[in-house]
Structure prediction request, 366 residues.
Amino acid sequence: MTTRVAIVGGTGKLGGVIREVVEAEEGYEVFAVLGSRSDLAELDGADLVIDASTPAVSIDVVRAAIERGINVLVGTSGGRTSASPSSCARGRCRSLLPSIEIVEAHRETKVDSPSGTAVRTAELIAAAREEIGPVQSPHVDQRARGQQVASVPIHSLRRPGVIARQETVLSGAGESLSIVHDTIDPTTAYAPGIRIAIAAALEARGVVVGRRRHQRMKTRIAVGLMTVLLLLYIVLAGQRSVVLLASGDGVGIAMGVALIVLPLIALWAIGRELWFGVRAQKLGEILDAEGALPHEEVALRPSGRATRDDADALFPAYRADVEQHPGDWRAWYRLGVAYDASGDRRRAREAVRTAIALEKSDRPAA
Ligand SMILES: NC(=O)C1=CN([C@@H]2O[C@H](COP(=O)(O)OP(=O)(O)OC[C@H]3O[C@@H](n4cnc5c(N)ncnc54)[C@H](O)[C@@H]3O)[C@@H](O)[C@H]2O)C=CC1
Ligand SMILES: O=C(O)C1=N[C@H](C(=O)O)C[C@H](O)C1
Prediction:
């Protein structure tokens, strides 16, 4: 089946690159190209919408696609849904180099500042530094010191002749580290990412920023509903148990106690699971932002789990890491991910529980 792609902003620079990629990609066809004079009704009949327009228009494009039940991939920067690659998200250098600033340069006609890439980089830096606090940027009253995003100052230059350039400067006492990304040829630079994104966008459910998923809402609603129902049950069972406890009969009293104790145990177990889920997710996000999650390519079974051979091949390195650094929550978390990949949920949970406990004990007392 051919995927019919509608490109909003398809007459622009990025849109032109996207058109070339879609036309060349097997299984895809350019179904519609929308520009500033087009009507969003032209999206009707598309299987995938790609937005490469302007920040002012982007949100309407997303709404129009959602209303039609069409998945939408947003390349436009400057809105809350922008997703761009980052040049620096590693947490490893964070404590040694406490001052971090971003300098980005784009063409003079770019309408959004700071660039979406710079904003995303700042957010990822802040996420990676969560445990040690914001970067050193004490200037809150000097506009020339840049716009602070998640405490990271961003300086935007708009210059003729520049395509896209970002420098992330990390500085410490007597040293500095610069990470520079330059776009030299947009077509060759962006095409591989566009290919990955259009394939992922067709499969995506919910909102996905970059390659990370943000689909927790449904789970939260289900857990919230369960907790409300359980609380209701506890109130009703509590009333019943008061009657039984007051009956003076031995069996009645035992039933009254059970009626109130058992749901309380269930509530405690749900709370414990919820806490586990929240912390496991948080630690996973920290490692992801640091680029420190296991990244080996493994063959997957239809269930989405790694094949036994590939999963077994992963273990020695992660187990050895834990043996060498038994107090390092990151090593334990990675071992948990390796267990999970092999389908050993019990050991995966044990390892992640250890990681959560170690991370908690690492945190400075409030
Ligand atoms: N995520 C990434 O890695 C990248 C993102 N971008 C972003 O993509 C966006 C587009 O950039 P360029 O192609 O360089 O800009 P451009 O100015 O060349 O193209 C903008 C396009 O939007 C269209 N447009 C404007 N108003 C419209 C409306 N009301 N309805 C439909 N279409 C409308 C224009 O006709 C034009 O085709 C920018 O936000 C830019 O920052 C660009 C390159 C890479
Ligand atoms: O040309 C642009 O506009 C670009 N914008 C992106 C952003 O805002 O992050 C980055 C891209 O490399 C070029």
